[in-house]
Structure formats: C-alpha cells, structure tokens
Write a structure and sequence with these properties.
Elements: H1 3-12, E1 30-31, E2 37-41, H2 46-51, H3 58-69, E3 78-81, H4 95-112, E4 116-120, H5 121-129, H6 134-137, E5 141-144, E6 147-152, H7 162-183, E7 192-194
Parallel strand pairs: 2-3, 2-4, 4-6, 5-7
Antiparallel strand pairs: 1-3, 5-6
The chain binds uracil (URA) and iron/sulfur cluster.
Uracil binds at residues 41-45, 48, 54-55, 57, 59-60, 81, 156.
Length: 196
Amino acid sequence: MNQLETIKQNVIKCTKCDLYKTRTNSVPGKGNFQSDVIFVGEAPGRNEDKNGEPFVGAAGKKLSAALEGAGVSREDVYITNVVKCRPPNNRVPNTNERDTCKEYLKNEILIIKPKIICVLGNTAFNSVLGGSEITKFRGKLVRKDNQLYFLTIHPAATIYNQELISTLNEDIKKLFNLITELKNNKIVSIDIEYTS
Ligand code: URA
Ligand code: SF4
C-alpha cells in the first residue's frame, strides 16, 4: 500500500477526536499524488460526509469551475481539508479538533511535496499559518519554512456572491501561473515571509 493510501485508511477508521461520533464517513484527501499543489479547505460538509470525498457539494462545484477556468482538471490536483470529519451542523472545527487532525495534513504534505499549498478560506489560513482576515491577504504568495503557500477565499463564500466568483477564479488562475513560473525556474516574488 502506498503512503497516501495508508493515511486514507487511518483517516477512515480514526477515532482520535469526538467528531468520529457524529460523522457518516471520514473524508480523506483525494487526487493526484504527484500534484504541484494541495488545496486545503476547512472540513467536510453534508455532501462530503455522505460521500466520503472532499469538495463534492456546492462549494466543490465552485472550486471545480475555478480550476476549469485555469485549464486544470480536478483529477490533476490534490484536495483535502484541515479536519477530515464533518463538524455537527457545519460549525467551524474547534482548536482541539484541528490540532488532533493536523498530523494527517502534515503527512499528506510530506508525501506529496507540493510546490504550493493553496489555503482556502479563514479556517485553513488560521490552522495552517496562524493567520486571519483572508479577504485582506487573498491573492498573496507566502513563504514559511521553505514552503510556499497561496492564499485565497473559501469557495463556499462565492455561492451567493457573484463578485467573489471572479475573485476566486482570478486567484486560481494566478496560482497556476505562479506554478508555471516555478516550473520554468523563474523567480517569483514572495508577498509575505512568515517566520516560525
Ligand atoms: N467545505 C470545505 O471546507 N471542505 C469540503 O470538503 C467541502 C466544503
Ligand atoms: Fe480523526 Fe480527524 Fe476525524 Fe477527528 S476529525 S476523528 S482526528 S480523522
């Protein structure tokens, strides 16, 4: 079994935090293990809990559309969440749940070694980089401990807001332009340096 498959099996049977009691299915990350980018959301919603796959509901459609707009198919990338089980009533996962679950994300990153980690929305921004106010920092490229991160809004924020759809779509295009530049060994400019 490959290493990502091992994580997946561990997530499926995980009982490390109380969210296992109310979930229907755990939602392991999914996608291309050779992807240049990992997308990190908050936590599964109702559809994801039902299907056991990340971003398959309304927010997922927005993410897929943004990817298509950038000429990228969902299958080409790797998509995951900070927390792998649905919090009841879609509440924001608490600190204990995030801290308990974060080893899985850490290992997904270690295995895939993405050029850029794309942080989707405030919860992921806070969990992964300790940040807040994603609307202020979206569209920016961050470097921390030699890892690059790209910040954008959560796709769910675009569901009832047409203006934010173009924000998301433009950010995702910028993300893949940055990836192309990195692959061509061009020097990209870092917007924010985080020190740990
Ligand atoms: N929202 C998330 O943050 N993650 C999902 O997988 C679906 C919706
Ligand atoms: Fe385990 Fe994470 Fe699910 Fe909690 S949310 S039970 S830590 S997989």
